[in-house]
Amino acid sequence: MIRKATFADIEGIDRLLSQVLEVHHVIRPDLFKGNARKYTDDELMSLIEDPDRPIFVYEESAGIILGYIFCIITEHKNDNILTDIKTLYIDDLCVDRTRRGEHIGRKLYEYVVSYAGSIGCYNVTLNVWEGNDSAKAFYESLGMKPQKYGMETIL
Fold first, then answer.
1. 7: domain range?
2. Is residue 45 left, alpha or beta, with left meaning phi > 0 and alpha meaning psi from -120 to 50?
3. Rg of the chain on CA atoms, in Å
4. For a designed S-S bond to 108, which of 57, 69, 119, 152 qualifies (C-beta 3.0 to 4.6 A apart)?
5. What is the pLDDT of residues 21-48, one digit of tens each?
């Protein structure tokens, strides 16, 4: 079942956030700390209450959170260079590492695409870290295409 996150989901979300952080730490230990938390419980509570930052969870029948998708809704109106556009940005998507391959991530993504359409979004966007080849392949399998590239020079 996919639904909006509640305060009762924080423990399950925290468990999955740790898995995502571990992936990012392995890829970019120069940027991501190991054994850290992306959000405090208070920050998660604020996000859960924010209508512009919906979080959806995939809950197993036993009440266990097997996946989540963090979203940020942005809207540009009367911008000097951008058209009036409403975007749903996927800030984070995670499926429990023990349950990958069961199409939970696909279901979460499809749910959010439908949600974005229902609230008048033009597009759904996200970022993938270079080196996270499995995530890139997953998003490409969903039909996503590159919108832009972020580049860096490490000093």
1. 2-141
2. alpha
3. 16
4. 69
5. 999 999 999 999 988 889 999 999 999 9
